[in-house]
Amino acid sequence: MSKTIYLMRHGETLFNTQKRVQGWCDSPLTQKGIEQAQAVGAYFKRQGIAFDAAYSSTQERATDTLKLVTDTPYQQLKGLKEMNFGIFEAREEELLPKHRPGSRSFEDLLVPFGGEDIHEVGRRVEEAILSVAETDPAQSILMVSHGAAIWGLVQVLDVQFPPGVFLPNCAICQLNYEDGQIQFEHLIDPQNDFKVYDL
């Protein structure tokens, strides 16, 4: 049975504006972040998209975003949590290790510093989505997660994004679930007039 899952990133937060690492630590949505989430909610209504179920990460910024997007009752899932950045949590982003040449992510560079391997994060997110898809009868599902967590899933499923396209705040990944498989279909960019990219 086919299901549609809208996996989105939370709205802008205080730490985003301060260019601080925001993994397992948290900070509140800014006024802009609130407005971004409200705009996504309005977009879904314009598109006639309603949700049978909703899930968020256990972190405040994701849950607050979800509640601004939809009135659908929701559950929190630890599997949708952001990546753990170890000793870099709440520190300036410029202190993070640089990606290896040719890499699209931190890979395992944060593990020696108490953080997670992004591929393990991606598998964690994949398992959370599959668990919901296989047990929840809902056909249209909203999930609110985080930038690195979603990017980990992108790495694990080997999805190719268009050059220069990433995951801005409130970015929406439209996924299809069928026969135990997750397929990325579209990226919807709310920071660019809700431009839709085929994946």
From TrEMBL:
Keywords: Hydrolase
CDD domains, sorted: HP_PGM_like (cd07067)
InterPro entries (UniProt xref): His_Pase_superF_clade-1, His_PPase_superfam, PG/BPGM_mutase_AS, Phosphoglycerate_Mutase
The keyword Oxidoreductase is assigned to this record: no
Source superkingdom: Bacteria
One family name in Pfam for this protein: His_Phos_1
Official protein name in the record: Histidine phosphatase family protein
